[in-house]
Write a structure and sequence with these properties.
Strand content: under 5%
Oligomer: single chain
Number of helices: 4
Shape: globular
Largest sheet: none
Number of strands: 0
Radius of gyration: 14 Å
Order of helices and strands: HHHH
Structural class: mainly alpha
Mean pLDDT: 88
Length: about 100
Amino acid sequence: MLESLITRYVLVVANDDIAQRIQLVVLDKLLQTARNSEVNPEIQAAIVASLTNIAPKLSFRRDSNGRLMASWLAQFAAGGEWASQLKTKPLPPGSPI
């Protein structure tokens, strides 16, 4: 399941701004989860393994989003805490109009 999520939301080349932003948010959240000490170690290990597997695939991409995500994975592989690279706003309360 994790592999299909990553393939669908990270590896596919996105052609519009919204899809590119979604890719960055998904990858950022995966990186945060992998370094979160409150997350089950098995979950962390699965995320790290999946991200390690996709790093070479991203390094071959020539689009700016692919290069950015590849650089994030390189930073992540270097170790330490993951400082979120994105500023996201929470969704407003209630149902959409």
